[in-house]
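Final report, results section. Input specification for complex C-07:
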Amino acid sequence: MTQQPLALINARLVNPASGTETRGGLLIMDGVIADLGGAVTKDALPAGARVIDCAGDIVAPGLIDMRAFVGEPGAEHRETMASASAAAAAGGVTTMVAMPDTHPAVDDPAVVDFIKRRARDTARVRVLPSAAITKGLRGKEIAEIGLLLESGAVAFTDGLRSIRNAQVMRRAMTYARDFDALIMHFAQDEDLAGSGVMNAGERATRLGLGGIPVEAETIALDRDLRLVNMIKGRYHASLVSAAPSLEILKRAKDAGLKVTCATSINHLTLNENDIGAYRSFFKLSPPLRHEDDRLAMVEALASGLIDVIVSDHNPQDVETKRLPFGEAEFGAIGLETMLSAGLRLVHAGQVSMARLLHALSTRPAEILGLPQGRLQKGAPADVIRFDPEEPYVLDPALLHSRSRNTPFDGAKMEGRVKLTVVAGEVVWG
Amino acid sequence: MADTNSPNPFPHRHLLGIEALSAPDILHLLDMADEAVALSRQVEKKRSILRGRTQINLFFENSTRTQASFEIAGKRLGADVMNMSVATSSVKKGETLIDTAVTLNAMRPDIIIVRHQESGAVDLLSRKVDCSVVNAGDGSHEHPTQALLDALTIRRNKGRIEGLTVAICGDVAHSRVARSNMVLLAKLGARVRVVAPSTLLPAGIDRMGVEVHRNMRDGLRDADIVMMLRLQLERMSGAFVPSLREYARFYGLDEEKLAWAKPDALVMHPGPMNRGVEIDTAVADGPRSLITEQVEMGVAVRMAVLEALAQNLPNL
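Structure output:
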């Protein structure tokens, strides 16, 4: 069955791979980008093509989110493939990497297979399963990395959990290297983090809340990168939050190690003061840090030291969030608001549009070895159209996620996705 | 009939913490509490300000003395007082704090007194009910009536608070009493010190407007008031300090250490005490101890708080 050709004309084509921007159109045929540029106009299209006039809006590669918690299987009351992918489509995310923190955990090829089939049958966007580094995410025994890779896992991570035992981490990295598998690790020393629930410091002390010091992140990250130096495998820091982590990452990158890193949209746009009077929707892991840390994250994003922005989408419901701060779960949803929130940095003049989109599409594609995430002939037609200026106030009731735990409740946003295309099919707009 | 032209002397619906109070708010409560002390020393202690009102004491953490103090305060003002002890262990899984709040609210109480083990829990509950809420201690956050009763005790013994040097000693990191006292005493112009081993000092304490000391000799020098904190025994034996005897040796208040403070320095403790750990019996029961008086002032301050809040309750 052939697809009706789709032409997006009169657009600002932003190609984050090259950092270039051109006026013109984009022609999609059979799920791939058939042509693009100034020559793609209304008058030069194949017969029967559906034409969308973008009226000067940006057309860019669809976003690739390397860290999304879906909830299926096991927590379908919070989120399903269908609801998560609806949120993703509305937010311009065309590929999401699903975290293995499900019930059962993704530590068995059968679960990878289940996720792929559920995604195929119910999801609007591409869902790529990640698999556990250790069995049951328990941090003790290495999962079946080879078999999981064969069944379709794109990377290995213990999701929300950090591997406490350095020997286990060393063995996992060593074994994964033989398969050239990507280890994506959330580096946090669980003993130092202890029972902390927010960034350690004056704010936590005033609120009487237990603190998680920056060193919980830097010590674990430093340990990991020393192991990478010893083993020379591929390592991606899933989510860093603290300014001193950037020095550690820079040192590893300068030494030529195969190291990449991400921060979350929340850590780029919010800080610990947003917690205010115990607002549990701002209880995140790692915790929102000091404003100085946030500014350092933004700067490192602009310079390219931070490779990737993730949504860290983590749906939680009333039963796990409408609790006293200390008892509430960590996490916020983010698939649908990631681009709008990220555009704040562009509007503030802190990050260029091309760099923002690079960290949201091309760079994750490079790290994961995916063909999408680029505007070029022959690439998969995963593209979005958005007006970077369109103002709106975020109404959580209108979000597509099954959970409502957004830290941007009532926030003024500027820039919104109007059209999302996956493999040539319109999935939003 | 109140003079409608004069501003409300206590413009608050709830008492959730000292942080939200101004110095005049605090002084107003202390003045009312002085009257309550006088009333409580009469044979006829009963007033009718809260007649017809329902007060619920909702304690998620056990506390015999604070609960009793609030109960007596409410009854002296004529309220119908109901005690609900929800010990942590018996909190039914499935009923969240908000569900509990909504359920109690439907019974139309006028004032709920809440103690909870989590910081911020009382604030959360207050957003879900129509009545007034008093924080009787939330996690490591605040314990406002304790700070008020401490201030009342100090003022009645020293005649003032402004300009006094108050040393708060012990487990500052986990103490809501310390937080509320630091805030209140600073608002009233006292010079506040905290004295503790560094493992019992919270992060950022040096930026909170208090002098920080790590040994009792420096911390108690020229102090007018020595306020000891209770050490939670589960925090001992290696987790924060090596042992009880080591803690008692360096941070327990005995007559020798008390001699480092001013000759007329007075000693306080919020209770219950670990005798021989943070405070020596000779000091706790000695002539400079205000500890029993603190308990009496507790009832008076809680009467003042209930009365102040009742004046803002709807009357229809």
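The CA atoms of residues 232 and 351 of chain A lie 31 Å apart. The first strand of chain A starts at residue 6 and ends at 15. This concludes the modelling results for the funded period.
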